Every structure is written in C-alpha cells, then in structure tokens.
Amino acid sequence: METKVCAGCGASVAVASMSWTSDGERCEDCAGGHADVVGQGSSSATRVAVGALVAAALPLVFSYRTSSTTTVTMTDAAGVEHVASSGSAYDYVAIGGGGIALVLATVALLLNLKEKRKAAFVMLGLAFVVGAYQLARGFVF
User: At what angle do helices 92-115 and 118-140 cross, to 10 degrees?
Assistant: First the structure.
C-alpha cells in the first residue's frame, strides 16, 4: 500500500484516502475543514443551505397578499358618531418561504457543525436573515 505525507498534519496516510486542496494533498481529517477540496462534491449542508436561500428568495419574486378592513360606526347617547376601523394584511408566500427558509437553515446548521464549511456558514447566515425578514414581512407589511 502506497502512502503519502499529509500537508496539513504531517501524518503518513494511504494515497486512496488523500484529497487535493489548494494547499496540497491532505488526509481526510485535515481536508474536512477545507472548502476548496478538489473533486469533493458539495456537502449536504451546502445543498440544504442553497435550498434555504431559494425558499427565502422566492417571496422576492412571487407574492400572494390578502387584506381586510373592518369599520364600525357607533353613535353615543349625545348623538355623536364614533368610527373605529382595523385592518390586517398577510402575504402567504412570504410567510411560507420565510418559515421554510428558517427550518432548512436550522437543519443545514446542524449538518454543518460537523463539516465546518465556511461557504455553508455564510449561506446559512444569509438564509437566516432573509428568511426571518420574509416571515416578518408576511405578517407585518
């Protein structure tokens, strides 16, 4: 069995378990924290984070808004009319997209705690912020 020396930790490792990075060949333990491993596909955390970003961005393109207003007019004993009105508006796409984005971002965060990919952490932060904004926008604006 042929072995090589890991550029990260200096350990002698079997060639089959080495990964190429921008810093040279690394063992599986050292390459796990690298976001630029050549030939290594995107992690499940990264794919879930991308899904969270898509769900958070969807309400920026599509909207389904409903609104209602209720007005009540009352006359008191002196004959003076008092008018009270209230209204509500909801954007169901923003509520759904924001909620799904927050759930997916939480799942991706849990998956990424083991892999520690920087790109996934950046996407997660963005997904959390945009997802929370969309969820609030669906109820408030």
Answer: 160
Q: Is the dihedral of CA 96, 98, 102, 107 positive or negative?
A: positive
pTM given for the model: 0.59
**81 close to 75: Cβ distance less than 8 angstroms:** yes
Helix (H) or strand (E) holding 110: helix 92-115
Q: What tokens were used for 63?
A: 């909207």
Quote the tokens at residue 2: 């042929």
**pLDDT digits 0-9 by tens, 72-97:** 888 888 888 888 888 888 888 999 99
| Closest among 110, 104, 124 to 51, alpha carbons compared | 104
The C-alpha angle 51, 56, 59, rounded to 5 degrees, equals 125
Asked if residue 74 lies in contact with residue 82, where contact means CB atoms within 8 angstroms, the answer is yes
Closest Cα partner for 131 from 39, 12, 51? 51
